[in-house]
Design brief:
By secondary structure, the protein is α+β, with helices and mostly antiparallel strands. Helices cover 26% and strands 39% of the residues. The protein contains 6 helices and 33 strands. It starts with a helix and ends in a 12-residue tail after the last helix.
């Protein structure tokens, strides 16, 4: 037993020694690993410090200085667009004339008097006879219209009390309408009103309204809204525009204001001359009560329409006579043929437009014999509907377009931040790379402030006009620069030297020669600025030195942190 016990104890002792030996080896291994890691960290930190010193040294080398000096700063708006001819004219011929042959080609120069096209003279002769006959018909219509005298009347159209009469005998109705917006005004609901601060007034409260002549009217609060009270009084005696004082209980003054028509109805018209005023102020009128008599209403509208159509025919006749005399279509001025119309698509007849205008004229003329405007009716003994004589047979077709070769224009986009700085008349510089580096003087002739939004970007457009030069062709791309402000003899610094916050701007006036850190910020007031220079209005004096850096490749960039845009502030 003792022998077995001793053998077991020896075995356990041996096992314990083996465990302690393995534990020591593990500890030694861990210590070696820790030592190696620590050594690696030391080496890494040392190298990182060296890299930082190199990066800072690189940045320090890019620190720039500037001595504040005087100079000029200008700001510009620029853009590009396609140029086009401005002073163009369509060459047209009266409808019914046939072209034999077009003798010019597009984009070729022509001189005044050059034959552009030959025509079928038989069609010219026929067209002349037709137009002359139409002119004779218009002369008859004019004679008939001038001999007619239309007597008309204007009725109230609604029941109410006449409170204002603008039109007087001899007044032109159209002129009266333009000046006053009505011939007369009727109170439709028998009330006048006055509006004062509501105070403690409530709907239905009874008050007194003191007129300028000292008389009192019984009033009632009709409504209260937005701090005001509307008080109504009978319209029999009170007049619009009359100053009134509102009195409450015990004669307490509640407010003052001018009386107005509570529910006004305007009596209107549009043509003719007032021959007599039948209405009277404060007259109670019915729907058929005659307010005004009118003369020359139908004649004025009808005569002017016929005369306008005759003048169109006169122009057509003149054009036909010119073609008949020349035996061809000739260039009316020196210029360039821009386009030639396809004969199948060249007819640009004004027939439809003329018919529409005639239809509108006919309606106007008919309106004279049967007024349908608010509060207006009329009657006439006899008149021929204007539509009988208002149709015009004059039309034309375009055969080509000519340019006078005097001016061209370019339309370009303008950013929303610049559009308000532009004004018509500003000078511009235009360059067209396809024909050379020469700069042409232009003028801003148009600003379109209609927004054009695309992909979240809003732009507007502007047009610059300039003198046409040799080799300029419509469609070429032009660059435009407009100087919107230009300062001279002001203190300037590089724009890169100015640091801006939401509330101020500042520059640095010193730097650390070792680290390159910018020091001593000074707040400045800035004026005009562009990509290169900024005007300094206060904060610096001429000769002061400012420090700035253009470095964009610093330590953080090298390790992928994004430089200044990363938010680290370097």
């Amino acid at each position: 037993m003792d022998e077995n016990k001793n053998r077991d104890e020896a075995l356990f002792t041996a096992l314990d020694k083996e465990k302690r030996k393995k534990r020591r080896k593990r500890i030694i291994t861990v210590l070696i690993i820790v030592a190696l890691v620590a050594a690696g960290l030391v080496i890494g930190v040392t190298r990182l410090q060296a890299t930082v010193r190199d990066a800072v040294s690189t940045q320090t080398d890019q620190i720039l200085t500037w001595a504040v000096t005087t100079g000029s700063v200008s700001t510009t708006v620029s853009g590009e667009g396609a140029i086009s001819d401005v002073d163009t004219e369509d060459i047209t011929i009266p409808d019914g004339v046939d072209i034999d042959e077009i003798l010019v080609e597009a984009n070729t120069p022509v001189s005044k008097g050059d034959v552009l096209a030959t025509v079928d003279m038989n069609t010219v002769t026929a067209a002349l006879a037709d137009v002359q006959e139409k002119i004779s018909e218009k002369d008859k219509d004019l004679a008939k219209a001038s001999s007619e005298t239309a007597a008309t009347i204007i009725k109230a159209g609604v029941s109410g009390r006449v409170k204002i009469i603008y039109a007087q005998p001899g007044d032109d109705i159209a002129a009266c309408m333009v000046e006053h917006g009505a011939l007369a005004v009727i109170s439709q609901d028998k009330y006048m009103c006055v509006t004062i601060p509501a105070g403690e007034l409530s709907v239905g409260d009874k008050v007194k309204v003191l007129r300028e002549n000292g008389s009192e009217l019984s009033g009632k609060v009709e409504s209260t809204a937005r701090g005001n009270a509307v008080i109504i009084v009978p319209d029999k005696d009170a007049m619009p525009g009359e100053h009134a004082t509102v009195l409450g209980k015990g004669g307490k003054e509640l407010g003052k204001a001018d009386l107005e028509i509570h529910n006004p109805i305007k009596v209107t018209g549009h043509t003719g001359v007032i021959s007599a005023v039948k209405a009277k102020i404060n007259q109670q009128a019915g729907t058929n009560t005659i307010l005004f008599s009118i003369k020359d209403a139908s004649t004025a509208s009808k005569y002017s329409g016929i005369l306008r159509e005759r003048r169109d025919l006169e122009e057509t006749l003149s054009a036909l006579l010119t073609i008949y005399r020349d035996g061809a279509i000739r260039a009316p001025f020196d210029g360039t043929v821009l386009t030639i119309e396809d004969e199948k698509d060249s007819s640009t007849s004004s027939q439809d437009a003329t018919q529409d205008a005639s239809q509108g004229l006919s309606m106007s003329a008919m309106g004279i014999s049967d007024y349908s405007l608010t509060g207006q009716t009329a009657s006439t003994s006899s008149s021929t509907a204007a539509s009988d004589t208002s149709s015009s047979d004059s039309s034309e077709k375009k055969i080509m377009t000519l340019s006078r070769d005097k001016e061209m224009s370019v339309k370009f986009s303008v950013d929303e931040s610049d559009i308000l700085a532009l004004e018509v008349g500003q000078e511009a510089t235009v360059t067209i790379d396809s024909i050379g580096v020469e700069k042409y003087k232009g003028v801003l002739t148009g600003i379109d402030r209609t927004a054009n939004s695309k992909s979240g970007v809003t732009t507007y457009s502007a047009t610059v006009t300039f003198e046409k030069a040799e080799f300029m062709l419509s469609g070429m791309t032009a660059d435009v620069v407009i100087t919107i402000s230009d300062t001279g003899d002001v203190l300037i610094v590089p724009t890169d030297a100015v640091n801006k916050t939401s509330a101020s701007a500042y520059v640095y006036t010193a730097s650390d020669p070792v680290t390159g850190q910018l020091l001593n910020p000074v707040t400045v007031s800035c004026g005009v600025s562009n990509d290169d220079y900024t005007e300094i209005r206060s904060g610096l004096s001429e000769g002061d030195i400012v420090y700035y850096s253009k470095s964009e490749n610093n330590f953080w960039d090298m390790y992928g942190f994004g430089g200044t845009s990363s938010g680290f502030g370097f």
